[in-house]
Amino acid sequence: VSHVLRRVTFGPTAAEIDAAARADLSATVTALLAPAALPKPPTLGPGPVGALAEGASRADRQKARQVVRQQVADLTWWWFTRMAATGGAAEKLTFFWHGHWATSVQKVRSVRLMLRQQQTFRRYGAGDTGALVRAMLRDPALILWLDGQRNTRQAPNENLARELMELFTLGVGNYTENDVKAGARVLTGWRVDRAAGAARLVPRRHDDSPVTLLGRTGTVDVDGYADLLVRHPAHLPFLAGRLWLRYGSDEPAPAAGMRRMVGAGRSATAMLTALATDPAFPATAGHLVKQPVEWLVGAVRQLGIDTGTLTGEQRKQVLAGLRTLGQVPLRPPSVGGWPAGAAWLTTSSAGARLRSGQALVALAPHAVETIAATARDERLDALAHLLVVDGWTGRTRSALAGAVGEPRRLLALGLATPEYTVH
Amino acid sequence: MDTITRRRFLTASGVVAGAALAAGGTAYGLAEILGTAGQRVPGAKTLVLVTLYGGNDGLNTVIPYADPAYRSNRPQLAYAADQVLTLDDAFGLNPAMTGLHRLYGEKRLAIVRGVGYPKPDRSHFRSMDIWQTGQPDRPGTTGWLGRWLDAAGGDPRLAVSFEPVLPPLLAGARSAGATVPGGAVQLPGTVTTDLLRSFGRPSAGEPPAQARAAACFADLVRVQGLMHDVASAAADEQDSAEDPPATGTGGAGPPLEAQLALVARCVEAGAATRAYSVSLGGFDLHADEKTAQESQLAKLDKPLAAFADRMARTAAGKDVVIAVYSEFGRRVKANASDGTDHGTASSMFLLGAGVRGGLYGEPPSLTDLDDGDLRHTVDFRDVYAMLLGDVLDGDAEKLLNGWTGRFRFD
After folding, report:
1. Which tens digits make up the pLDDT trace of A42-52?
2. Nearest-CA residue of chain A relative to B236?
3. Any alpha helices (H) in B228-270, and if so which ranges?
4. Less CB within 10 Å around the terminal CB: N or C of chain A?
5. Residues contacting residue A262 through CB under 8 Å, at least 6 positions apart
């Protein structure tokens, strides 16, 4: 059960594990993946970039950039505190989709549009991927990010069509260069209205002549394209592979497990249920490197840090850990999303976990007290319980032995252990 | 237990590019090799590999200004003959590349044209996997420098990256290069070398990912020693509030200038490292390309020329060879959002020890195209073979899976 919770949710606490242990596994999985209500979005203020007049002065542009930077910081913190507060599967899935349709605010330059995209993940991410793909093809942030609004009848731009098939729905090798060209034509004509926060189709920029796309010839509109993609035989295996990469293991999925996920149908919830209840799933424990966001959210939750009481300086300090570990929400490094697995295991990330761990423990007096109140010879077990680690290797026990007398140090080191780095 | 368990990691695309890394750390623990790796072999050369992420537009970098097909394909994007920095009567460099143009004039810059590979892939990620693994048919699980590192003994100090995430090219089957962003790994004062050592010990039977996490601590001990002399002036990560630019296609790291400054310090301090990986992202210019590419190329040109000059001033620096590549060039025809879409063959730059300046490689025809794209005339593995053999003293044929071609300066 603790394995399922560690993977499907964001850093479960010891109390959550204990509660879940009383129910049976499949009921737990169903409850974890039950639909979550759409959260009330934060108030972020108007987007200054959209409001800039044509030919605005340098100073005005600079000011707008500054406002955007502050808004990005606010939205990032709001999202982070939401992950830490709920810790639930819904927010984890939202983060999965963010890494999947990896869009960076740095080019979009509007928190409103980034938030809109995030809400789209919350609204459609748990259900049929057909609805999600349809919504994403109208998503203003994605359109801006991949030059969709530069894609017109007169001058097709292939960026969005290519990444849509390669990275979002089918995977490399499952479409041809001609499909990219045809797909780009189907997607011509969308414009983003920053002020309205929406994208709309401009008929005179749109090319509605017939195309041959993924083996079908005819006139295809944007929804027709989305349907072709999600009904393509490569779509479900591709998506199952992507989910396995983030929820399953750094090693390839066993064929039987992959078949079960594909057989579960066109929804992330169904596929994750299949993954978490697969007979081979327990054996993946410890075989997946935590992404930095998973590591940090888990640490904050397990240490019981109350994000609501942190000062601006402390907030910055917490998020600085993500920057040095190389995973800042809203800023994926590329449209391919963040790396996975051993790419997170570097000399510098080991150093960053040690530093960040120390900073986090300084914000967690309650967790320090819990350890301090435990008898010395039971502190390593108490540490494992608090951090929801199944157990320490002899190596780590002896490495930590020198710190049992110092609860703060022990906790900080616990967060950097090899056992805590994976899940 | 198995001393070596294969494990994989995935690159950004989710394409398996990964590496089989050591489990249990024993592959690293060969004290004899580590002892010798600390001393540089006199006269050994050092490779500095510069990766340009995003697909740099080769035709507007090394510009075939005299070819009428160049101008007719790119009415808005083309440079006129009097704008380019002339190399000869047919080619010129982008106007932003004054530093490299000077080095070319001094016969220090070699430009290899038409570099690519068969059946080019137009996906950034797939093509970058192909370049980084050196395996065009089927990008495998190890990087070309990672395989060299395996053969050279696997000490992570031999191959260093200053990017925050391990680039696949440094992943071997049994070892991996060290990543040292910012040049220094700062540790809390309470963390001692003994503690790192004890975290770094292998534990029998643990999952490979966990074993790798432990091995990072052992690597950290070694990297600490390597970086001790060079860390003093490195910028504090906490203070650098500016984010690296989002590039869409990878290469988000510290500025190239900062990465090269760290390389320079390591080289001058006589570090054992033989291969450095540095990178610059932001070349994926589907729209409004011209000025953006000039500013990108300036970000390459200035630091690179300064680095080459600095290297030429010291004995250690004179053994350094620099190679620059990108995952592909761009389509010959502009796309009319004043940008270019993904293409194929492009130029590589070589500088430093043993490099004879000049133009090499048959320039690809702009009219005899493969579905709108250039046909490559030089396989990138030829250049790799030269770098592996002549610079890194490796068995190029073996490291490149039987590839026998080799680029030569003649």
Report:
1. 988 887 877 77
2. A324
3. 256-268
4. N
5. A236, A237, A240, A271
